[in-house]
Design brief:
The protein contains twelve helices and 13 strands. With about 325 residues, it is an alpha/beta fold. It folds into two domains: about 220 residues, Periplasmic binding protein-like II (D-Maltodextrin-Binding Protein, domain 2, 3-Layer(aba) Sandwich), CATH 3.40.190.10; about 90 residues, Periplasmic binding protein-like II (D-Maltodextrin-Binding Protein, domain 2), CATH 3.40.190.10. The strands form two sheets. Strands 1, 2, 3, 4, 5, 11, 12 and 13 form an eight-stranded mixed beta sheet that branches. The chain has a five-stranded mixed beta sheet with strand order 8-7-9-6-10, with helices on both faces.
Length: about 325
Protein backbone atom coordinates (compact mmCIF):
# COMPACT_ATOMS: atom_id res chain seq x y z
CA UNK A 1 0.00 0.00 0.00
CA UNK A 2 1.00 3.61 -0.46
CA UNK A 3 1.90 5.63 2.64
CA UNK A 4 0.85 9.16 3.48
CA UNK A 5 2.31 11.86 5.67
CA UNK A 6 -0.76 13.57 7.11
CA UNK A 7 -1.26 16.64 9.24
CA UNK A 8 -4.47 18.47 10.00
CA UNK A 9 -5.65 21.48 8.04
CA UNK A 10 -7.55 24.32 9.68
CA UNK A 11 -11.18 24.10 8.68
CA UNK A 12 -12.06 27.53 7.35
CA UNK A 13 -14.59 28.74 4.86
CA UNK A 14 -13.56 27.78 1.32
CA UNK A 15 -13.38 30.33 -1.44
CA UNK A 16 -16.74 30.33 -3.20
CA UNK A 17 -15.80 32.07 -6.40
CA UNK A 18 -16.26 29.38 -8.98
CA UNK A 19 -18.69 26.70 -7.92
CA UNK A 20 -19.83 26.06 -11.47
CA UNK A 21 -16.53 26.45 -13.31
CA UNK A 22 -15.49 22.82 -13.20
CA UNK A 23 -18.81 21.62 -14.57
CA UNK A 24 -17.94 18.47 -12.62
CA UNK A 25 -19.36 15.06 -13.28
CA UNK A 26 -20.97 13.49 -10.22
CA UNK A 27 -18.82 10.79 -8.68
CA UNK A 28 -19.96 7.21 -8.97
CA UNK A 29 -19.26 5.74 -5.54
CA UNK A 30 -18.38 2.15 -4.81
CA UNK A 31 -16.69 0.08 -2.16
CA UNK A 32 -13.26 1.06 -3.49
CA UNK A 33 -14.06 4.76 -3.63
CA UNK A 34 -14.91 6.95 -6.64
CA UNK A 35 -15.00 5.12 -9.99
CA UNK A 36 -14.81 8.32 -12.04
CA UNK A 37 -11.80 10.58 -11.59
CA UNK A 38 -12.40 14.24 -12.42
CA UNK A 39 -9.06 15.67 -13.50
CA UNK A 40 -8.53 19.44 -13.80
CA UNK A 41 -5.82 20.89 -16.00
CA UNK A 42 -4.58 24.04 -17.75
CA UNK A 43 -3.41 24.51 -21.31
CA UNK A 44 0.14 24.64 -19.94
CA UNK A 45 -0.25 21.22 -18.25
CA UNK A 46 2.18 19.63 -20.68
CA UNK A 47 2.55 16.15 -19.26
CA UNK A 48 -1.19 15.77 -18.72
CA UNK A 49 -1.74 16.89 -22.33
CA UNK A 50 0.72 14.23 -23.49
CA UNK A 51 -1.08 11.56 -21.47
CA UNK A 52 -4.42 12.66 -22.85
CA UNK A 53 -3.24 12.71 -26.45
CA UNK A 54 -1.48 9.36 -26.15
CA UNK A 55 -4.37 7.81 -24.21
CA UNK A 56 -2.03 6.04 -21.81
CA UNK A 57 -3.48 7.30 -18.53
CA UNK A 58 -7.04 6.40 -19.50
CA UNK A 59 -5.96 2.88 -20.47
CA UNK A 60 -4.06 2.43 -17.22
CA UNK A 61 -7.01 3.61 -15.15
CA UNK A 62 -9.42 1.41 -17.07
CA UNK A 63 -7.43 -1.56 -15.79
CA UNK A 64 -8.28 -0.32 -12.28
CA UNK A 65 -11.97 -0.01 -13.15
CA UNK A 66 -11.76 3.77 -13.16
CA UNK A 67 -12.98 6.23 -15.80
CA UNK A 68 -11.49 9.67 -16.37
CA UNK A 69 -13.19 12.99 -17.11
CA UNK A 70 -11.27 16.11 -18.18
CA UNK A 71 -11.92 19.69 -17.00
CA UNK A 72 -9.97 22.67 -18.34
CA UNK A 73 -9.23 25.86 -16.36
CA UNK A 74 -7.67 29.16 -17.36
CA UNK A 75 -5.03 29.18 -14.60
CA UNK A 76 -3.98 27.52 -11.39
CA UNK A 77 -6.01 29.49 -8.83
CA UNK A 78 -9.48 28.57 -10.15
CA UNK A 79 -8.21 25.02 -10.65
CA UNK A 80 -7.36 24.59 -6.97
CA UNK A 81 -10.49 26.44 -5.93
CA UNK A 82 -12.41 23.73 -7.78
CA UNK A 83 -10.39 21.06 -5.97
CA UNK A 84 -11.15 22.78 -2.66
CA UNK A 85 -14.87 22.88 -3.47
CA UNK A 86 -14.89 19.15 -4.45
CA UNK A 87 -15.72 19.91 -8.09
CA UNK A 88 -12.68 17.90 -9.22
CA UNK A 89 -10.62 15.15 -7.58
CA UNK A 90 -7.12 15.63 -9.00
CA UNK A 91 -5.25 18.69 -10.26
CA UNK A 92 -2.66 18.68 -13.01
CA UNK A 93 0.43 20.76 -12.38
CA UNK A 94 0.04 24.22 -10.90
CA UNK A 95 2.82 26.66 -10.06
CA UNK A 96 4.35 26.58 -6.59
CA UNK A 97 2.48 29.71 -5.51
CA UNK A 98 -1.02 28.33 -6.07
CA UNK A 99 -1.16 25.79 -3.21
CA UNK A 100 -0.19 28.59 -0.81
CA UNK A 101 -3.43 30.42 -1.63
CA UNK A 102 -5.41 27.18 -1.37
CA UNK A 103 -3.92 26.49 2.07
CA UNK A 104 -4.87 29.98 3.19
CA UNK A 105 -8.45 29.15 2.14
CA UNK A 106 -8.42 26.04 4.34
CA UNK A 107 -8.20 23.48 1.54
CA UNK A 108 -7.43 19.87 2.46
CA UNK A 109 -4.95 18.96 -0.26
CA UNK A 110 -2.52 16.11 -0.84
CA UNK A 111 0.66 16.84 -2.80
CA UNK A 112 1.05 14.00 -5.31
CA UNK A 113 4.17 14.95 -7.29
CA UNK A 114 6.49 17.82 -8.09
CA UNK A 115 8.28 18.90 -11.26
CA UNK A 116 11.86 19.98 -10.54
CA UNK A 117 12.70 23.70 -10.98
CA UNK A 118 12.32 25.46 -14.34
CA UNK A 119 13.23 29.10 -13.56
CA UNK A 120 13.53 30.25 -17.20
CA UNK A 121 10.04 28.98 -18.10
CA UNK A 122 8.41 32.18 -16.79
CA UNK A 123 9.40 35.80 -17.35
CA UNK A 124 8.49 39.48 -17.22
CA UNK A 125 7.95 40.70 -20.79
CA UNK A 126 7.79 44.10 -22.43
CA UNK A 127 7.14 44.98 -26.05
CA UNK A 128 10.19 45.24 -28.32
CA UNK A 129 9.85 49.04 -28.62
CA UNK A 130 9.17 49.64 -24.91
CA UNK A 131 11.29 52.29 -23.16
CA UNK A 132 11.35 50.03 -20.08
CA UNK A 133 14.89 48.66 -19.76
CA UNK A 134 14.91 47.21 -16.25
CA UNK A 135 12.58 46.06 -13.48
CA UNK A 136 13.08 49.36 -11.63
CA UNK A 137 11.41 51.09 -14.59
CA UNK A 138 8.15 49.29 -13.75
CA UNK A 139 7.42 51.82 -11.00
CA UNK A 140 4.01 53.34 -11.68
CA UNK A 141 3.47 51.04 -14.66
CA UNK A 142 0.53 48.72 -15.34
CA UNK A 143 1.67 45.10 -15.16
CA UNK A 144 -0.53 42.19 -16.21
CA UNK A 145 -0.36 38.65 -14.78
CA UNK A 146 -2.53 35.83 -13.45
CA UNK A 147 -3.24 36.19 -9.74
CA UNK A 148 -1.54 33.56 -7.53
CA UNK A 149 0.31 32.03 -10.48
CA UNK A 150 4.04 31.40 -10.30
CA UNK A 151 4.58 34.64 -12.18
CA UNK A 152 2.95 36.51 -9.30
CA UNK A 153 5.79 35.48 -7.01
CA UNK A 154 8.38 36.10 -9.73
CA UNK A 155 7.07 39.67 -9.97
CA UNK A 156 7.24 40.16 -6.18
CA UNK A 157 10.79 38.81 -6.07
CA UNK A 158 11.95 40.90 -9.03
CA UNK A 159 10.40 44.07 -7.60
CA UNK A 160 12.03 43.45 -4.23
CA UNK A 161 15.44 42.96 -5.84
CA UNK A 162 14.95 46.26 -7.71
CA UNK A 163 14.07 48.08 -4.48
CA UNK A 164 10.34 48.28 -5.23
CA UNK A 165 7.24 46.87 -3.56
CA UNK A 166 4.01 45.53 -5.01
CA UNK A 167 2.39 48.87 -4.15
CA UNK A 168 4.75 50.59 -6.61
CA UNK A 169 3.03 49.05 -9.65
CA UNK A 170 -0.51 49.06 -11.01
CA UNK A 171 -1.44 45.35 -11.12
CA UNK A 172 -3.87 43.93 -13.68
CA UNK A 173 -5.03 40.38 -12.91
CA UNK A 174 -5.45 38.71 -16.31
CA UNK A 175 -5.71 35.17 -17.65
CA UNK A 176 -3.02 34.25 -20.20
CA UNK A 177 -5.38 34.83 -23.15
CA UNK A 178 -6.54 38.20 -21.84
CA UNK A 179 -2.98 39.12 -20.91
CA UNK A 180 -1.72 38.46 -24.43
CA UNK A 181 -4.48 40.62 -25.94
CA UNK A 182 -3.85 43.47 -23.47
CA UNK A 183 -0.10 43.23 -24.05
CA UNK A 184 -0.39 43.46 -27.82
CA UNK A 185 -2.76 46.42 -27.81
CA UNK A 186 -0.69 48.34 -25.26
CA UNK A 187 -3.24 48.21 -22.44
CA UNK A 188 -0.51 46.99 -20.08
CA UNK A 189 3.13 48.08 -19.95
CA UNK A 190 4.52 44.67 -19.03
CA UNK A 191 3.22 41.12 -18.92
CA UNK A 192 4.41 38.33 -16.62
CA UNK A 193 3.66 34.90 -18.04
CA UNK A 194 4.82 31.30 -18.26
CA UNK A 195 5.46 28.86 -21.09
CA UNK A 196 4.14 28.04 -23.65
CA UNK A 197 2.56 31.54 -23.60
CA UNK A 198 6.00 33.04 -22.97
CA UNK A 199 7.61 31.43 -26.02
CA UNK A 200 4.59 32.29 -28.17
CA UNK A 201 4.80 35.98 -27.19
CA UNK A 202 8.52 36.04 -27.96
CA UNK A 203 8.25 34.38 -31.36
CA UNK A 204 4.90 35.80 -32.53
CA UNK A 205 4.85 39.25 -30.92
CA UNK A 206 8.57 39.98 -30.62
CA UNK A 207 8.31 40.36 -26.85
CA UNK A 208 11.49 41.19 -24.96
CA UNK A 209 12.41 39.49 -21.66
CA UNK A 210 12.98 41.97 -18.85
CA UNK A 211 13.71 39.24 -16.30
CA UNK A 212 13.11 35.52 -15.98
CA UNK A 213 13.13 33.50 -12.79
CA UNK A 214 16.86 32.81 -12.65
CA UNK A 215 18.05 33.57 -9.12
CA UNK A 216 14.57 34.80 -8.16
CA UNK A 217 11.99 32.03 -8.37
CA UNK A 218 12.65 28.31 -8.90
CA UNK A 219 9.22 27.71 -10.48
CA UNK A 220 8.38 24.21 -9.34
CA UNK A 221 5.04 22.82 -10.40
CA UNK A 222 2.87 20.55 -8.25
CA UNK A 223 0.25 17.88 -8.91
CA UNK A 224 -2.36 17.65 -6.17
CA UNK A 225 -5.45 15.74 -5.11
CA UNK A 226 -8.13 16.31 -2.54
CA UNK A 227 -7.14 14.48 0.61
CA UNK A 228 -10.52 12.74 0.61
CA UNK A 229 -9.80 11.27 -2.82
CA UNK A 230 -6.17 10.48 -1.98
CA UNK A 231 -7.26 8.42 1.01
CA UNK A 232 -9.96 6.63 -0.98
CA UNK A 233 -7.95 5.78 -4.12
CA UNK A 234 -4.19 5.78 -3.53
CA UNK A 235 -3.74 3.24 -6.33
CA UNK A 236 -5.14 5.78 -8.79
CA UNK A 237 -2.57 8.34 -7.65
CA UNK A 238 0.13 5.69 -7.97
CA UNK A 239 -0.88 5.06 -11.58
CA UNK A 240 -0.97 8.78 -12.31
CA UNK A 241 2.48 9.27 -10.77
CA UNK A 242 3.99 6.45 -12.85
CA UNK A 243 2.49 7.84 -16.07
CA UNK A 244 3.71 11.36 -15.30
CA UNK A 245 7.25 10.07 -14.76
CA UNK A 246 7.14 8.21 -18.05
CA UNK A 247 5.71 11.18 -19.95
CA UNK A 248 8.33 13.53 -18.49
CA UNK A 249 11.15 11.31 -19.71
CA UNK A 250 9.55 10.91 -23.13
CA UNK A 251 9.14 14.66 -23.72
CA UNK A 252 12.79 15.36 -22.87
CA UNK A 253 14.11 12.41 -24.86
CA UNK A 254 11.95 13.11 -27.94
CA UNK A 255 11.69 16.93 -28.16
CA UNK A 256 10.62 17.16 -31.81
CA UNK A 257 8.11 14.33 -31.59
CA UNK A 258 6.65 15.84 -28.40
CA UNK A 259 6.41 19.27 -30.06
CA UNK A 260 4.65 17.77 -33.07
CA UNK A 261 2.16 16.03 -30.75
CA UNK A 262 1.40 19.12 -28.66
CA UNK A 263 1.45 21.82 -31.38
CA UNK A 264 -2.09 21.22 -32.76
CA UNK A 265 -3.48 20.68 -29.24
CA UNK A 266 -2.12 24.07 -28.15
CA UNK A 267 -2.72 25.77 -31.51
CA UNK A 268 0.94 26.76 -31.71
CA UNK A 269 3.79 26.28 -34.14
CA UNK A 270 5.92 23.23 -33.32
CA UNK A 271 9.01 25.44 -33.03
CA UNK A 272 7.35 27.46 -30.27
CA UNK A 273 6.37 24.29 -28.44
CA UNK A 274 9.87 22.86 -28.68
CA UNK A 275 11.35 26.09 -27.28
CA UNK A 276 8.86 26.09 -24.41
CA UNK A 277 9.48 22.44 -23.59
CA UNK A 278 13.21 23.08 -23.59
CA UNK A 279 12.78 25.44 -20.62
CA UNK A 280 10.77 23.05 -18.47
CA UNK A 281 12.50 20.27 -16.52
CA UNK A 282 9.59 17.79 -16.65
CA UNK A 283 11.53 15.86 -14.00
CA UNK A 284 8.73 14.34 -11.92
CA UNK A 285 9.65 13.46 -8.34
CA UNK A 286 7.95 12.75 -5.00
CA UNK A 287 7.19 15.70 -2.76
CA UNK A 288 9.17 15.69 0.49
CA UNK A 289 9.28 18.21 3.34
CA UNK A 290 12.83 19.07 2.28
CA UNK A 291 11.84 20.18 -1.22
CA UNK A 292 8.98 22.31 0.09
CA UNK A 293 11.35 24.85 1.65
CA UNK A 294 10.72 27.52 -0.99
CA UNK A 295 6.97 27.22 -0.35
CA UNK A 296 7.39 28.92 3.02
CA UNK A 297 9.40 31.74 1.46
CA UNK A 298 6.64 32.22 -1.13
CA UNK A 299 3.92 32.19 1.54
CA UNK A 300 5.76 34.73 3.69
CA UNK A 301 6.27 37.05 0.70
CA UNK A 302 2.56 37.04 -0.16
CA UNK A 303 1.56 37.55 3.47
CA UNK A 304 3.96 40.48 3.82
CA UNK A 305 2.28 42.15 0.85
CA UNK A 306 -1.16 41.49 2.45
CA UNK A 307 -2.10 39.23 -0.47
CA UNK A 308 -2.81 36.29 1.87
CA UNK A 309 -5.45 36.61 4.60
CA UNK A 310 -3.30 34.83 7.17
CA UNK A 311 0.16 33.41 7.72
CA UNK A 312 0.45 29.71 6.80
CA UNK A 313 2.81 26.84 7.52
CA UNK A 314 3.89 25.44 4.15
CA UNK A 315 4.58 22.04 5.71
CA UNK A 316 1.04 21.72 7.08
CA UNK A 317 0.09 19.47 4.16
CA UNK A 318 -0.37 15.81 3.24
CA UNK A 319 2.24 14.18 1.00
CA UNK A 320 1.65 11.17 -1.23
CA UNK A 321 4.44 8.60 -1.24
CA UNK A 322 4.58 6.57 -4.47
CA UNK A 323 5.64 2.95 -4.29
CA UNK A 324 9.29 2.38 -5.14
Amino acid sequence: MNDFFHSSFPRRAALGLIGALAGGVALAQGAGGPRTVRLGYQKSSTLIAVLRLQGTLERRLEALGVKLSWHEFTSGLPLLEALNLDNIDVSADVADTVPVFAQAAGARLTFVAQEAPSPTAQAILVRADSPIRGVADLKGKRVGFAKAAGVHYLLLAALDKAGLSFADIDPAYLSPADGRAAFERGAIDAWVVWDPFLSAAQKQAGARVLSDGTGLASYQRYYLASTRFAQARPEVLGALYAELERAGRWVKQHPKEAAALLAPFWGLDAGIVEQANGRRSYAVRPVTPQNLTEQQKIADAFFAEKLLPRRIDALDVALFKPEA
